[in-house]
Design goal:
- The complex is a heterodimer of chains A (about 650) and B (about 160).
- With about 650 residues, chain A is of the alpha/beta class.
- Chain A folds into three domains: about 10-235, Rossmann fold (3-Layer(aba) Sandwich); about 240-410, 3-Layer(aba) Sandwich (Rossmann fold), CATH 3.40.50.1220; about 425-595, 3-Layer(aba) Sandwich (Rossmann fold).
- Chain A is built from 24 helices and 20 strands.
- Chain B is α+β, with helices and mostly antiparallel strands and about 160 residues long.
- Chain B is built from four helices and nine strands; from the N terminus they run βαββαββαββαββ.
- In chain B, strand 6 and strand 7 form a beta hairpin.
- The chains are: A alpha/beta (about 650), B alpha+beta (about 160).
Chain lengths: ~650, ~160
Amino acid sequence: MQNNFVNTATLHSEKLMLMELIAHELEATGTQKIAHPLAGKTLTGADTIVQVLADEGVDTIFGYSGGAILPTYDAVFRFNSENQRDGVEPMPLIVPANEQGAGFMAAGYARASGKVGVVMVTSGPGATNCVTPVRDCAADSIPIVVICGQVPTAAIGTDAFQEAPVTSIMGSVAKHVFLVTDPLQLEVTVRTAFEIARTGRPGPVVIDIPKDIQNWSGPYRGEGLMPIRGYRKRLVSIQENALSDAKCQSFFDLLGAAKRPLIYAGGGVINAGASEALRSLAIEFGIPVTTTLMGLGCFDTTHPLALHMLGMHGLASANFAVDDCDFLIAVGARFDDRVAGNPSKFAPSAKQVAHFDIDPSEIHKVKPADWHHVGLLAESLEQLLSYAHKQKLSSDFAQWHREIAELKRTYGLNYDRDSEAIQPYYVIETMNKITKGEAIVSTGVGQHQMWAAQYCDFREPRLWMTSGSMGTMGFGLPAAIGAQFARPNKLVIDIDGDASIRMNLGELETATTYGLPIKVIVLNNFGDGMVMQWQRLFHMGRLSGSDKSLRKKNFIKAAEADGFEYAKRLDTKADVPRVLEEFLAFPGPAFLEVIIDPEANVYPMVGPGLPYREIVTGKFIANRYDTTERTDPDSSEMF
Amino acid sequence: MRHIISILLQNEAGALTRVSNLFSSRGYNIESLNVAPTTDPDLSRLTLVTTGSEEVIDQISKQLGKLVDVVDISDMTGEDHIERELMMCKVRSADSAAMEKLTELRARVLDDREDHYTVEFVGGSQEIDRLILKLGSIGTVTAVVRSGAMAVARGAPILQQA
């Protein structure tokens, strides 16, 4: 080992000198390929991994150590101590309470920054604890790379200590999994993992690296990727699939024939960095925009054309606009069952459906599209715009705009404002007045998640972190931690539920350990609120397994025990504005438990599998449909 | 409807599992699956027989296209193709004319000892189904080993290796 030890500090200064030399040479010769400063040097496998991470621009690793990943943890330690500047490590290692926390931190980091999140864990339980975040990232198309230690190659398959079949387990849930069996392939494998994670429809990539491969030493090349010829071929064809003038014209023909066009935008817009292009298209042509849960923030929710969220718990105004539209334009959205519970009755007045996506499998999967385009979203929307500019195309949807404004006025969100109990809506609405749609908000899963989605504004993309497709309780706290590392100067708020936060409560200590000024709000309704809502609606109020009113948890003591200097309980309605101001302004980590009305429901609600006509809006939101004779959802459709 | 899908797959750890996992996790059927190496040592060729509506088959092809290890895919059913399957089976028969009858059915006898005939037959999958029924009239079919269907397009079309 000693002989193979690579002094990265020396290498670093060598790197700088080399760069300068190359720069001079470039000036002299014009086009010379810059060789990696470490090209040809001998590195251990572990150092190779860390060097590729550095080359990829990784500035934070989330992970938990253990036997099979020790060599790489050692390499990270050495890299950081040798390359630190003014005491700042270039690639700090953030250690959670549980590997699941590391996975969600990386997910929060990726969602907030748009960069690939990195997780580094040991074999066996370290890897299996990451299964949930890996599936969560696949389901929400979030790019992360998970590096798992594995037992040495010779021990694989022997039921060795802390051995788990990572390729089999992760193969079912990740975008891709690599098991490195040839050390000469290690460098290109790690580099290729980043490429796969961030390209096309983004997703999680797992690299399983046996300990002997980490301990191997050999030449560093500083370049090269794996062939993955099929993947790259398909990727290039999608990337190069530009919208022809004829196709642009056919889109604008459909738009020109429409009186009530509506953009239905999803998380794909955020992943593709297409928010600007979407905004231009919507505003220039006056097309109203509703977004999915994952798409929140891709279009400024405070804009007059914004309808906010659609779907099962979407705003009634947004859902009515979907029912009214005659041309539906799906952009980076996939007609998920929480949006189109009943696909054939979704957007029933739409004479035409247009669908933009980067994933060919989403076209016609749920709702047949009359016009579709598979390609890069930002580029596609820009091509449409530049065609429209060239042809001097314009539109006039003034009547539709009046209808939209009326829908928003009449069927907007509302709640019992005179209630003595603290209503959760009031808490989030008040918070939103302070944060003005500029804070990063993460959530757990359940009622609080839907209330946060409904009542928070998002002026820009990458402010909203939520487990959309998988619906993983416990997501909020670690995601907030990851997001704060990605955006240190942003206000990061975890709006959580009492049941969700319990799932990863250990991460409270992680927040204080790293001095992160995140704000944790727990809306306590003493149970699994969404489950209780469904049990009240569909199971005659039998609260099987969901009522936590007799539990002993003292959240304030828990937060204090984990080092929160600000930890308060809010149970008086009149105190809400003052306490929220003080809580959000607290300079360090802050924890606020709010005792809310345990009977509060999420409204509007479209029952599972039902069309929007069956929307239930509760007592405080107007409904334009008569739903006195409610259809009960099919009991097997209820998920 | 029955579809034959041919796939070129990179020989990576877990690649075959990812193909079969895709079918089980998305609820698609696999009627038969044949896997063998190609002249390129990095690639295997899979022939998969499945059933489903046009929408399901379309999704299967598209979902297969999302697997990183998949190099190329072709739904043979959509184009003019040749299908073959190899079957080996054992027939137990005391019939003295067994050998003659087997040959009449175009089953090639590979081994014959103590009233046990091991035969080989190559044909379309349905032809094989029919043959197995007919073999029942000669004796008792004690074992059937089938390769699963293999298919190749007629004329120039091939799967793209790069």
